[in-house]
Amino acid sequence: MLGAVAVLLVLGVWAAVAGAGVARHARAAQAEVASVRTAVTSGDLGAAEAATARASAETSAAAHDVDALPLVMASHVPGKLGEVVGALRTAVHAVDQAVSRGALPAVRSGGDALEAGVVRSDGSLDPAALSRLAVQLRPAAQQAELARASAAGIDPAGLPPGLSGRVQQAVDGVDQLADGLTRTEALLGALPRVLGSDRPRTYLVGFQNTAELRPTGGIIGTWALLDVTDGRFRLSDAGSNADDLERLTGPVRDFGAEYSALYPAQQSSYSQNVGLSPHFPYAAQLLTDLWTAQGRPAPDGVIVLDPSGLAPLLRGAGAVEVPGGPPVTADDVVDVVLRQAYDRFDGDNTGRKAYLTALVGAAFERGLGGGRWDAGRLAALGTAVQDGHLQIWSADPDEESALEAGGVAGSLPEPATGSAGVYLTNISASKLDYYVHEQVQVTGGCSAPPTLSVGLRNDAPARVPEYVSNKLPGVDPTTETLAVALYLPPGTRAAEVLVDGVEAEVETGTERGWGVTRVSVAVPRGQAVTVQATLDGPVAPITEVHTQPLVHAAEVSAPGCS
Predict the structure, then answer these.
(1) What's 299's DSSP letter?
(2) pLDDT one-digit tens code per residue, 470-510
(3) CA dihedral sign of residues 223, 227, 230, 233
(4) Cβ neighbours for 417, distance < 8 A, ≥ 6 positions apart
(5) Considering the entire predicted model, what is its pTM?
(6) Among the four residues 47, 87, 124, 405, which has the most C-beta atoms within 10 Å?
């Protein structure tokens, strides 16, 4: 008996030492992951590969430690101890598989592809090289998916408090990595045809103004026609919505009863309102209808981007001169388009639209025609896509399916128990959303249904140009008025919605499997307003909240039960 106790004590000390080593390697790997993100964002693939290799070394060392004899033995002990140690070992091995056999080969393949000619000598993109890269990435994506499947069997909520949060973080990290690699492979597989590898393409490009919010991003202010042939781009035309995108002359496309109930035809027949739904394919098809209703040929697809999505095209281009107004750079184009232009052209809306149309042409000529693609610009553009600042719809159903799989189609996500959505619509005809900041917080969900809170802050200055101001009668010019739409998971409803503690009137509906609750709020300058929804439905944490692209990215806190 005493001998058995002694053995257990020795094994316990050994397990604690091994556990400390696992934690040390995990912290080191986490630090390297941060370095990978920084390197990828800056387009330094060499540094990204080196940091990924160091992270792989740390995750492999952690995997070696959890295979130490005492931890292996402990994982087979019946009861809670075995479950906890088994979950820890599974999580560590899943992370190592995702990093060492997923991320590291993927980063190496990307670097090799750039050296092998994804970017041609003339700065254009080679669709054939992108196809080869997609094939090279497939094994890495498959390994990450296997790691995700392994991690999915872990229940972090059932682990001790000090461990559950770390294991949940590991599971989430594996999930995000698998998502990223799978989407990248799908996108690279779709891009060659989108880039005109089989035939020339023409895309209608809409520029969204995120100073006047719509759930897809913002209103369409200017447009362009982009011709693409074998990875080479040419801007063939450009204009503004006021002159060239008039109201639909025919019936609005029928997206079904639930769409019509939420977005009446008399609203969605305007180019400014094609993005009333957060499902971008709807907006793209409505924009196509507006275009063809004027007797113009149907485009092969629709691309929308906002100033934050335009900025990557200007990376490395220096200052771009624009007729009739200030020059722009990658660093200041957002501020120039969404703030400075309104000050400079106060009272001259025609001059402002002419300047913005010229800006689009100049930016595209420098960024796509005269510029060169490189790792930095591609990385910056990838970030814009990930954050929703650039979305693509294809009229070809097969291409559209591939774009959806690649995460660039702007589709409303499929409803899920652990997810929610928050989407804002400007209903004041203002351009005040440049100054709006959003914070979303989810609490509860462990022993009671969760609460979803949306905080909105308005940092507008004391005076704004008339064109920027709130146009609603009797409302202060610098007060912003927004419709806040909460997209709730299946079986869940908003039992009570409070605006700054006062019960509010709401509208309800459904869209693509989501329950929708909408409430209108006014946010005075210099103040913050909170919309709080107490949810009624399954007792389950919401760990993911979908939001739209904003000038200032929404701050989201959805920690789950930990």
Answers:
(1) P
(2) 999 999 999 999 999 999 998 999 999 999 999 999 999 99
(3) negative
(4) 489, 490, 491, 538, 540
(5) 0.89
(6) 87
